[in-house]
Amino acid sequence: MSAILAEPELTPTLTSYPKVSEADMRARRELDASASGPVALLFTFGILWLVAWSVLNLILTWKLLSPDFLSSYSFLTFGRLRPIATSMFAYGWASCAGMGVSLWLMVRLCRVKLRSPLSVVIGTLIWNAGLFAGIVAIHLGYGRSMEYLELPVWSQLTMLGGFSIIGIWIVGLFYNRREGTGFITQAYVTAAFIWMAWTLLAANIFAAMPWVHGVIIAINNAWFISGITHYWFTAIGLGAAFYLIPKVTGRPIHSYYLANLGFWGFAFLAGWGGLQRYNGGPIPTWLITLNIVATALTIIPVATVAVNHHFTMAGGAHQMMHYSPTLRFTVVGAMAYTVSSLTAILLSLRTVASETGLTYVNLAQSHLVLYAFFTFIMFGAIYFIVPRLVGREWVSATFIRFHFWGTAYGIGLTIITLTIAGLFQGKDWANALVDNTTIVQTTLPLLRGSIIGALLLLGGHLIFALHFLLMILRLGQISDEPTLMAQLHSEECSLK
Amino acid sequence: MKYFFPGIFGAFLLGWIVQIGIPYASLAKLDPVVDPDTNEPYPYNVAGLAQQGRAVYAANGCVSCHTQQVRAAYMGADVDRHWGTRQSVARDYLYEDAVFLGSLRAGPDLSSVGARDVAGTKAPDLGSVEARAKNAQWHYVHLYNPRIVQPKSNMPSFSYLFDTKKIKGERSAKALDLPPPYSATDGYEIVPTPEAEALVGYLLSLNKNHDVPEMKGAPAPAKANQAK
């Protein structure tokens, strides 16, 4: 504990707002104000999609256990709801939250006002309208049955239209930025928008070409999944973590050199690592081998990021996770990034994939990446940003604690049960003497466990949504100090 | 900094060219193989009912739980499970415009389900009218409610692909033979909709158990499938 107290420049955003000059403060407020409308709108859409996803996630888990539940309507069949849930999570919650966080970070870091908040609002509305229409289309049976590309082409291209409006502003902010620190976050975020636009465009157009037939469609699909996961979600998650961890702890990024190295390593490897899902399948073997090698190489950028965060946090800053909701969510997310990257390497190896390929283990892995890593960092960022949008502090530390523990236990339970179920599944499918329905029955007790996980996630999200609603209605606390998850003890008061 | 935009563009383009561009160019060279005895090409481009059935398969997200790929022996017991006589290769999918390789096996693989004698007819030729009708009937009943034929299955019921109709005159030839409690009330019958007929037509058309040059010399599975 004394290590924290000894650091003089440590305190800023943990216990109080930084002591900056009046002019600087006014400048920050003006910057924040220029983007507050669109950012709040993006968060609102994201959180609505998140709650909708949680309900759907619960229904889907229930359907695996009780297959006749809601099965008499075509629009509620498992095979349509599952792609809808994926789209809601990836394009609804994760993308809207990611865009909101990115926009706020770029305005703050580039120190440039957002000229036209209205255009970003329009972009947001177009994105969400395209997504909503696409989801209705899947309900009605117009889904494409390609993972993460289930939404019809017209829906995805509409969304891309809205996305491009927001993306143009992001690139514009980057071009007009004032020189200073924080470049690594700007690089990740700007690149993420450009990569995402290309990835969406390339994969959708390619798959829709009438002369494109055969397994190349599946290859394109797998490339897209790794593209959206890395180029979009991971890039934004890392960008946000590189801002939030130094900001809350009041310590600079340990090494800019490492951060730069990590960025370029990431840039060249991010488009890879999707095709090993077809390990042993009908696509060229050299392509799978190349992807396994690329996935193994990600150890380099992943290590640079992990080492950097570790040394930024080292020497007592971990204690701050006890108090700061932003830091707790973000650091847990950053740790999940390291873990998920290592498990991705493990799962790509042929010896491991022969046990885990085409099982629930892969589902657990995508939960680890999109939830434990990305979503947790987004939660951390939202806890940091919203008070600065509305000028009030979070209402209740208890709500934040329930949100954290509900989602942490919820996702932990989901990942663990799916992994174990998947390992049983893989072992049994590999034994030709075990018949199909026995395999199904083996996984059921574990899927029952994941029902509890789904319930915890839903509970956590409802509390979070309510808390966010109170903040948007400006019912937050009026205070000079951020809401902390635990009371500072008297001997720690010198932190202030 | 001046390397930023060229750098991120180059990184993206490199990955795309190697993973999509080059494989596309090389896979485009694949041709169907022609059977020297019958002069029939393989794979053939399915048409009509089976083509419509593929759309029903896509619309209802069957790929969420069923794969369509028989993997190499080092990846598991796919061939031993009689999901196919050999590993699937790129040529098998030559004409498919939606490729349902899948990413999860909550249920069995379906790449050659049309070559499987699901109804247990033991007919020497599954293509015969009688054997085909029996296997089709099994698929209808299974789709209507999988637990009729597989009591411990957790596949959802697709009863919405069937109509309950009042019997007018003679009972329809397509009506499902269902045991109680699933059977329709007296005077009514349960018949497949056109979607269900297309879907079953598609399932029966799925058969990738055909010799291809790239798989010649591969060891035959212990028990060969009874595909035609």
How would you briefly describe this protein structure?
The complex is a heterodimer of chains A (496) and B (228). By secondary structure, chain A is mostly helical.
Number of helical segments of chain B?
Answer: 4
Greatest interface by residues involved:
A-B, 83 and 73 residues
Reading the helices and strands of chain A in chain order gives HHHHHHHHHHHHHHHH
Percent in helix of chain B: 25-40%
Instruction: Tally the helices of chain A.
Output: 16
Assembly state of the chains shown: heterodimer
Average pLDDT rating of chain A: 91
- Low-confidence stretches of chain A at least 5 residues in length (pLDDT < 50)? 1-12, 490-496
Biggest sheet strand order of chain B reads 1-2
Compute the separation of the termini of chain B in Å.
64 Å
Largest sheet of chain B: 2 strands, antiparallel
Query: Average pLDDT across residues of chain B?
Result: 90
- Mind summarizing the main beta sheet of chain A? none
The shape of chain B, in one word, is: globular
Global Rg of chain B? 21 Å
Instruction: Name the helix and strand elements of chain B from N-terminus to C-terminus, one letter apiece.
Output: HEEHHEEH
Basic shape of chain A: globular
Residue share in helices of chain A? over 70%
Q: Return the structural class of chain B.
A: mainly alpha
Structural description of this entry:
The complex is a heterodimer of chains A (496) and B (228). Chain A has 496 residues and is an all-alpha fold. Chain A has 16 helices and no strands. In chain A, helix 3 runs antiparallel to helix 14, helix 4 (78-110) runs antiparallel to helix 5 and helix 4 (78-110) crosses helix 14. Chain A is globular and about 75 Å long. Chain B is globular. Chain B has helices at residues 4-27, 48-59, 129-144, 194-205; strands at 33-34, 41-42, 162-166, 188-192. Mean pLDDT of chain B is 90; it is low at 219-228. Chain B is mostly helical. Helices cover 28% and strands 6% of the residues of chain B. The relative contact order of chain B is 0.17. In chain B, the strands form 2 sheets. Chain B has a two-stranded antiparallel sheet with strand order 1-2. The interface between A and B is large, with 83 and 73 residues.
